[in-house]
Design goal:
Blueprint lengths: L6 E7 L3 E8 L4 E9 L12 E2 L1 H15 L7 E8 L5 E3 L9 E2 L7 H11 L8 H11 L1 H4 L4 E3 L1 H10 L4 E2 H4 L5 E2 L4 E2 L1 H7 L3 H4 L3 E2 L6 E2 L2 H7 L6 E2 L3 E2 H8 L8 E5 L3 E5 L13 E4 L11 E7 L4 H10 L3 H10 L6 E3 L16 E3 L8 H25 L7 E4 L6 H11 L3 E3 L5 H15 L3 H8 L13 H21 L1
Parallel strand pairs: 1-5, 5-15, 9-12, 16-22, 22-23
Antiparallel strand pairs: 1-2, 2-3, 4-7, 6-8, 10-11, 13-14, 16-17, 17-19, 18-19, 20-21
Length: about 475
């Protein structure tokens, strides 16, 4: 590893933690990592999920200081990834007027339904626009004090650079940006909330630095003032860069609190039903033109597994082995514990059906949870196929991607091999690679592909006809359960 190469910082501001990585682009390695965990604000009503933006700033300072200790002078740029769809409301002095409503907040379901009717397209409850209408209608005195509206990663960029801007990839998840044009949708802006057009940040491109580190931020972080800060993006857009989904033909599935499946496209892709989000990518295509990132997102992924861990008192490794050898029948877990985004059922509930004697054993329940999440994802992948996104394989990222049984289930449910990437912090690494590409004026795809390393051989779909037919049968029952909740 070079002793004097350029280093780039990537930070990912998530729902449960903030993670920072220090990347040596020349060697293709991560020199240091740090993370800080935090929780949602407790005691809120059902459907509400909020965090105070100061929580993120404090975590960013702590993690960047840790990873750059003794190396701050070699850092040549900072990139920020952030949880999508959050609503950060600032006043005259750029103070946060209230805690931010997060992507998993479904309290604005009524507002989302109304906006969907008014705009003639689906606006999920998790998007930013319904949250802003919720605040304008239910907190009118607070809304009257709003002067700026930001996404979570924009708020951190404001702290770093002192400048007010956003990036088209993350902004395409608000509900009031037209992803095909890469510009705000004037009708959607006007209908979302009064005065919103005056509060929105200008869009900056992903291919060039968007600002520089202020003296105050540099002092807080232990870095040099004036180093470039890239436009950054949403965590899914940054994860796409970190996983090499920066060219057509690459599909990625990220397994965490929520789960996503996404793929790079050189052309806009539109799902008439609205299940597949027509996001913009935070990287350009091979010709330097706009990239697109059709994306499936489900809100329920690892939480059922965590609940079963607590319920049984057993660890995930033990539960996985029990699930591998469990005698499975027609047990189906519909995993909509938090409502669901895809399908668009913010008020949905979970259910467990098909029970027989012995079904309530830890192994059966754990496998039912793995399969329920996998089948919900697979229905979205099938919808993406109908839009022309045909994966040859799916790259798995995220902490839960290491589960070997889940890899086998996902491969069979998707119908294509899956491969696990060595690097799990793809969002933070993607943020570092984005700023490196912007500073060096290199295509980000060149840097991204050099970082892709597999953690083993591809896992193929099962060839056992009974296994394939059983999953297909359960997939049909999941579709019926979804139809019953619509």
């Amino acid at each position: 590893m070079s002793g004097d190469g350029d280093l780039f910082l990537g930070v990912d501001v998530g729902t449960q933690s903030t993670k920072a990585v220090l990347v040596d682009v020349d060697s293709g390695g991560v020199l240091a990592r740090a993370s800080r965990s935090y929780d949602l604000i407790p005691g809120l009503p059902l459907g509400h999920a909020e965090q105070h933006p100061d929580t993120w700033t404090e975590a960013v300072i702590a993690t960047i200081r840790e990873v750059s200790l003794g190396l701050g002078r070699r850092v040549c740029g900072v990139g920020v990834s952030g949880q999508q769809h959050g609503a950060v409301l600032l006043g005259d002095g750029d103070e946060a007027l209230r805690p931010a409503k997060l992507w998993c907040d479904t309290s604005a379901a009524e507002e989302a339904a109304a906006l969907s009717v008014e705009l003639g397209r689906t606006v999920p409850a998790g998007f930013t626009a319904p949250k802003l209408r919720w605040s304008a209608e239910r907190e009118p005195e607070l809304w009257a004090r709003v002067r700026r509206v930001l996404l979570p990663h924009d708020y951190i960029n404001l702290f770093l650079t002192g400048e007010f801007f956003t990036e088209v990839g993350d902004a395409s998840g608000t509900g009031y940006l037209d992803p095909a044009r890469g510009a705000y949708d004037a009708e959607a802006v006007d209908k979302t909330a009064p005065g919103l057009g005056d509060f929105l940040p200008p869009l900056r491109p992903c291919v060039a630095p968007a600002g520089t580190l202020t003296a105050a931020a540099a002092s807080a972080l232990g870095l040099e003032a004036g180093i470039p800060v890239s436009a950054g993006g949403g965590d899914n857009m940054m994860s796409a860069i970190g996983a090499g989904a920066t060219r057509p033909g690459v599909s990625v599935c990220s397994l965490g609190t929520s789960a996503t499946v996404f793929a790079f496209s050189s052309r806009p892709t539109v799902d008439p039903g609205g299940d597949i989000a027509s996001f913009r990518a935070s990287s350009a295509d091979e010709q330097g033109g706009a990239g697109h990132l059709p994306l499936l997102c489900v809100m329920n992924c690892t939480q059922p597994l965590e609940d079963l861990k607590v319920l049984t008192g057993k660890g995930h490794d033990e539960l996985t082995e029990l699930a591998r050898t469990a005698s499975m029948g027609d047990e189906l877990l519909v995993p909509f514990f938090m409502g669901e985004r895809v399908p668009n059922l913010p008020d949905a509930t979970a259910s467990l059906t098909g029970l027989r004697p012995g079904s309530l054993s830890p192994g059966v329940l754990y496998r039912a949870a793995l399969e329920g999440v996998a089948l919900n994802l697979a229905s979205g992948v099938e919808r993406m196929r109908g839009m022309g996104i045909e994966p040859e394989e799916v790259r798995l990222v995220g902490g839960a991607a290491r589960n070997s049984l889940w890899q086998e289930i996902l491969a069979t449910a998707f119908g294509v091999p899956v491969r696990v990437l060595v690097e799990t912090e793809t969002a933070a690494v993607g943020a570092a690679l984005q700023v490196a590409a912007a500073v060096r004026r290199e295509p980000v795809d060149h840097l991204a592909q050099a970082f892709v390393a597999y953690g083993g051989a591809a896992v193929p779909p099962s060839v056992d006809q009974g296994t394939v037919e059983r999953l297909a049968r359960l997939g049909g029952r999941l579709a019926e359960a979804i139809a019953a909740q619509r």
